[in-house]
Every structure is written in C-alpha cells, then in structure tokens.
C-alpha cells in the first residue's frame, strides 16, 4: 500500500514541473516575439520616413488647408496637454490644418508637454506624421530639445520625473528616424555624459538612467537583461538585438552605463556600512541606557528606507545591465554585551523556552508555583473574567527606559522642592471597621464567616491551602465589603511573617482575572506606602511591603528600584535587597525590562564599591546580586588559579602595598632580595612589573620609579619590561577590543612614566606616537579600516595620555622639533576623525576629545594656533613634508639615486636544486666613496690633534688680561714735568704703551699692572696695581717693583712678542 501511494505523488510532482517548464518556455517565446516586433516596427518607421521625406507635399497642397489663427492656436494648446486619448483627433487636425507658419510653436508644445510613459507611442506617431509633411519640423524640434537637454557639468535636474519621460521620448525620436543620428546623438551623448559624471555620489538621477536602460538600452547599448540571458541559455535560444547603431558607439554607451553602475555599487556599500554603524551604536546605547531616543528611531527608519530604495535601484540596474550585485558584508563584530534573553524571545523554540525557564526560575517547583494558577471558572461556571476591569496597561517601555544618570540629575535638582511637600505624603489609610450596629442583620453571619476566613488565612503555608482559600473566597465571600476587608488583611500582614507573602501574592494573582479590584486596591496602597517610607527616612520596617511588588507593572517596579538607588544608604539598602530577592531575577530575564535591570544592577554594584558601611550591608548587597545573577560554582572553581607563595607575595607587594605611604623603599628592598638568577622567579616578577593595568592608575608613576631603581641593580629587568610594554601597546593596536581599553590607557601611561625616569629614549616614544595615528589608519573615506573604526577614538586617548604625562619634557633640542612636527600630524588625524559622516547632531563628536586636544596644546605649546578645519591641517602637513624633503635633498642630493639603486640591489632569491638560496646585495664601488673616506680620515686626525692640544694647554695656568678699571684711570695724574706723558701710555690719545698682568693665584685677588716705557733712570721701578676684593667691592693698591724683577721682565718679553 505504501508503494502504490508514493507513485501518484511522484507523478504529480513531475507533471507540475513539466507544466511550469512549458509555461516558462511560452512566456520566453512571447517576450522574444515582442522584442522582434518592436525592432521590426522601429526599422519599418525608419524606412518609411526615409521614403516619405523625399516625397513631401508641395506648397499648393498646404494652401488648400485651414490656416486660421484660432484653430492653429487651439491645436498648439491641445498638444501642450496631450494624452493618448487625443491621438486620433490630433491626427485628424494635422490633415486639415496648415501648420507651416506654426511649426516652431508645435515643436515647442510637444517638447513642453507633460507626458506619461504610456503616451510615448502615441506622441511618436504624431511626430512621424508631422515630419512626413513639414520639412522644418525636425530642425525646430531639435532646437526645442536643445533648450531642455542642455545640461551643464555638475548641474542638477530640477524635475526628474519629467526628465525621465523626456529622455526616452528624445531617444525614440532618434531611433524612429524623426531625427537623424548625426543630428540627435551628440545632444543625447552630452546629456547622458554630464548627467552620469555629475551624479556619481548622490545618485539622485538614477531613475532617469534606469528608464533609459529599460526602454532604450536595446537600441543604443545592445542591453539584454540577466533574466532573458538565463532563459535563453536555459532553452538554448538567442535573443534578437538591434543593429541600428555601429558596435563601437553601442560599446561606448555600455561602458558609460557600467561606470555609473559601479559608482552606484560603491554608494550602496557605503550606505550599508553607515547603516550597520548606526545599528551598532544603537545596540551600544541600548546596553548602556536601556532605550533609544525618538530622534534616533526616526533616523533609523529614514536610513532603512533610503537603503532599501537604493538596494532596489541597484538590483534593477544589475538585471538590466546583466551585472553582478555587490557583496554586502554583514557586521560580524562581537557585541559588547550579551542579549541572550532578547535573542531567545525572537525565536522561541522548545529549547529556547527551556533555557528561558531555567533563567527565570530557580527550579521547576518555583515555576509551577508562579505560573500554574487555579482556574476559578471550573468551580464557578457563572464567574466570567472581567476584561474591562484589568489593572492599568503596561506603559510604553520606550517612555519608561530613560537614561539613569539624567534621571538622577533631575531628581537631585528637584529634591528640595519634593522635601518641602513631605507633609502632604501620608501613609496608606484604610477604612476603619464599622461597628456591628451599623452592619445589617443579614450580613452578621457573613461577617463571622469572613473573620474565620481571615483568621485561617495566616495558616495557609502551602500551595494547596492557598488555592483552596481563593476558591472559598470567590464562592462564598465575594462581596464589595469583604473585598475591602481582604485587602486590609493582606496589607497589614505582620512584619515577622515574611513566609506568608508569596502565598498572599498567589492568592491575589488567582483572584485577579475575576476579581481585579483586590489587586488594584492593594497596589495603590503599596505605592502610596512606598512613597511615604521613601520620604520618611527614619523608617526601617518596610521590607514586608516590598515582597508583593510582583503584582506591579514592571516599569513601576523599576521606577521604585531607581528611587532606592538614588538614596542608597541605611534602610534603602534593605528595601533594595528585598526587592531584588523577590522579583529581581524575573525582571532581569524579561525582554522589556532586561536592559534597564542590568544597568541598575551595575549601578548598585558601583555604589556598593564606594559604600562606607558595615559588613552587614555589603553582605546583603552581594547576596541579593548573586541571587539575581547566579554564578556557576563549578565554572568558578575551575578558573581559580593556585599560585605559589612567592608569586602571591610579589603580587601583594606590587598590587596591594604599592602606593602606601613609605612603602616604595620597602618594596624595592624586597624585590632586590628575590633570586633574579632563577629564570622562573625573574620571569614572573617581570610580568608583574609589566602589568601596569593591575595597579591603581595614580600608582603607575610609583611603579615606573621602582623599575628604574631596580634596573640599577638588575640591568636586564629594564630592557625586558620596556620590550614587554612596547609589545603590549602594539598588540592593543592590532586587536582593538573594547574591554581592554583601560589596559591600553594604563600601558600608554606606563610608557610615558618610564620615559620620565629615563628608561626609554624620546625616539621610542615618538615611534609609538606616530604608530597610533598611522598604523592601519585609512585616510580614504570610502575605505574603512577594521583596526581603526570611524567611531573608535581610543588612539586619540592614548596619544593624549602619553603627551599629558611626558610632553612637558619635549621642550628643547631635537625632541622639541620632533614634537612640533608630530603636533601637525596629530591635528590632521583629529580633524579627519572629526569630519567623518558618522558624527551627526544626534551622535556628536565627544567633547572630551576636543577639550583634551585643546588643553594639551595649551599646555605644551601655548603660542601655537590650532587648526580649525581639515583643509588647514592638510595644507600644513603638505607644507611640512615639502620643507623636510627640501632640507633632505640639500643635505643629500644623491638621495633619489640611492633609493633607486637600493631597489635594484635588494637581496634576491635564487633556486638551486630545489633549494632557495638568498644572496646578499653586492657593494658597488665608486670614486665618491674614496673621497669620502679620505675626508673622514682627515677630519678624525684633526679632531684627535685638537683634543690633544686642548689637553696639553689645560695643564698650564691660564694667563688672563684684564682691562684697566676706569676708576684707576681717573685717579692717575699727569707727570710733574709738564709733559704729555702718563703712566698708562706714551702720550695722551696715543696707543696703550703698557699692559696689565693678572696672576690668578686665588679667586679672591688679581693683579693689574701698567708699564710706562719712559721710566726714569734714577728710579728704575715699574708701577703695578694690586686689585683685591673686600666683600663685593674691588680695592686697588699701588705697588712699585724694580724694573729688573722677574715679573716686570716677563711682562716686557710678552709685549715684545705681541708687537713682533
């Protein structure tokens, strides 16, 4: 039986496929027939016009026609409003009217007419008839078209919809023979060329080009759609093509269209990247803030619509031109946060539901308790769910999920105003019980039953008992008065009976579909009581009220969570912990509250780290957090590292003790005591000294100081640490993972501090700085670098960190010049990043980067004027490179020749017997090398001789000539014999005849001497002045020595040698 049932199904399937194949073949043949008829019709029109133009009617024929102005003017107006329905009447008017004097108006009316694509065939027939009768029609209509299609370079089309029809109309006029190719093709070619070349970026005129390809591509470019080519290959048939134009001209048009298509593909890829970047930003905003603004949502819709429109246009072009669609790469970058709950909700398979249940509930029993509620309609068939009495609807998550920091700021600003109104906030007031006298007699028995029910309600400590209580209340006690009493009893639960709260919540949830007043009134009381206790900060017994918040809308519960976090102290901590223990796990794993709950939990843990409270609060916070976000104990234990005691001690010294007051010398002494000859100990110590990101940021300077001091005793430590730091910075540039950003900043700071302690040369620091702005950086807007994304500004932060730390020391010498050059390139990189299209009004460029650059320039180069535009920075870079190349060419004129020779003399690889042998470049001998070596030898010999001479002279006591002070000159008197001689020279106004000699025996005295050449023979002495210093004032004393003394003789000999 099974085999007989399968055969008919297979036969039916084969019959269906054969029928589809026959229908496809029939459709393809019909399409081929349409193309052949279209080409034949065009050829027939051209031959017809070629024949009839030579046999146009004579002037006597037109004299018999109507030439009245009224009818001709009406005919022209009719042409301006031409439609396909008017074709017959217009053709009739052409045969009865004499349009010889109105042919220019007729041509202008046809060109200015607002036609549709369906009207082209009819208006072409009209133009053919006019061309057959009037010889001036073709020239007049060509002149009219020249006014419309004369498009200048980079000129935009004002009305694309009309131009789309006009281009097809004009092209059909040429292909039909109304306009000859010699007359019409130049205008059409110039129009298409200017239109395509001026629209390669925005592609606003893509519809015009697409219409030309669809309706005129066969005649002008020999285009055949991809679908027709596939069908022709499939059915082994040929597609007819037009041979009206020569092959070279058709190839030119085809190349022009393909060039436009390639630019359209680039535009599509660029828009796709922009859309993916915007979606990635939206995901990050959702992870951090929990919502998207309306502006970003609207922009997302606009981007999606524009991309879908551009993609549809590209697909149509690809089909018409028989080209391949560009590959649109999907964004495979890892998401910053895990959105497991949201991803599961999109595709809720059985396995996904099981995973979601595991996240929501601790065990299966808990899930059954909260989800499987008894159906009261089974016990009371007449009890119908009240759909109209439901609790208030869930607010829009987009309106509820707002930025936490913004809310906190607003609440802090309005806190004072709210505190003034604290007197108006009162605790929830319940109606007092009425006296028995006020209760009707008919309700006395009901009151007794209710009191008994409320008394036994506190004994319901399991699921079966509370479900029975719900059935009993809905069956026997469901009155308005009893509902109010039930709400009062549930609300005033004792503080010591926390175990009853889950069961009371189940009771309210069971009654809610049929008796919603209980849940609504209870939530209102709880909301009011919560506000009262939040304002009255001296209350502490609030935890009993929070447990029933599961009946709240999730948005209201999160609002309460946020209010508690804003004043995270004392009893607010207890309230927050009880709230999380009750419903935190449920909130975290619901799609509409997942993001916001996760942000609030992170904020709570940050506040906990800054909390200066006792250990009881810290333990409560940790227990509540890990109850919401449980940690797998097996996975946690598998990741625990067991370190030797020595390794733990090294980590304790560097990561705990470092930074404490007076601990630097202690840590250095302990590190010096390590066995640095042991490779394992040395390797681990160096690795800890390299891990600057594990040290508190202010202590990185101290760590660099410890390394510098330790290097004085263990020299290899410094080299290995510097190498490791440079390698880590390079690795962070090659793998730009966002979670390592703090590590990257710490290592950049560490490198700068090592330079401050003279562990690194300035050239190494500048290499790192240039690497940050050049490595894998794309300055082409169309090419996006994977290692330097447009929205990734971490490299600028690294540069600012380095320059803020050690930039002040680049203030003189070669380092100053290097920094001046680098600042030019840095400003260009910053302005290029700032000018990328990813930064918009909705997503502005971070002001912290702008202010950081500004502050850095103001600190390092106060007089430097920053560049304001990208063009200014580009011009500065170009001028700087030209200046450097000019200096380099002057210093080394043969640089270009050497570069070329170096390319020619690179090491080559030769293969010998299946072996690769690398041959080194050979040195080319030239006479310039001999001259250079000879000059170098002379320079070295001169330097050696000069150094030897300086060393020999340095051993002699220096003889210093000191000018005669003016006080001494003024105190000298003229000779008593009336001559013009004095003690300072041969004559007044003559040259100085004497000299001063100073012997610096000590820094406290000096001798100044004057030797008159005409000394008296009776008193053969030479007068000297002895200069001494008393305090800061010099004192002079006259000293007469015999002329034959050694000092006077030496002075005379020295003067003779100078004069000689």
Task: Please provide a written account of the structure.
It is built from 46 helices and five strands. Among the domains are: 18-260, Serine Threonine Protein Phosphatase 5, Tetratricopeptide repeat (Alpha Horseshoe), CATH 1.25.40.180; 373-380 and 446-628, Serine Threonine Protein Phosphatase 5, Tetratricopeptide repeat (Alpha Horseshoe); 645-891, Serine Threonine Protein Phosphatase 5, Tetratricopeptide repeat (Alpha Horseshoe), CATH 1.25.40.180. A hairpin with a 2-residue loop joins strand 4 (1021-1030) and strand 5. With 1060 residues, it is mainly alpha-helical. The chain starts with a helix and ends with a helix. Helices cover 62% and strands 3% of the residues.
Tell me, briefly, the overall form. flat
Q: What's the story with the biggest beta sheet?
A: 3 strands, antiparallel
Approximately how much helix is present in the residues? 55-70%
**CATH architect. name of the domain at 645-891:** Alpha Horseshoe
Mean pLDDT: 76
State the CATH class of the domain at 645-891. Answer: Mainly Alpha
The assigned structural class equals mainly alpha
Query: What's the arrangement of strands in the largest beta sheet?
Result: 3-4-5
Find the CATH topology of the domain at 645-891: Serine Threonine Protein Phosphatase 5, Tetratricopeptide repeat
Query: What amount of the residues lies in strands?
Result: under 5%
Salient structural properties:
Regulator of nonsense transcripts 2; two-stranded antiparallel sheet; 62% helix; Serine Threonine Protein Phosphatase 5, Tetratricopeptide repeat; three-stranded antiparallel sheet; disordered N terminus; ARM-type_fold
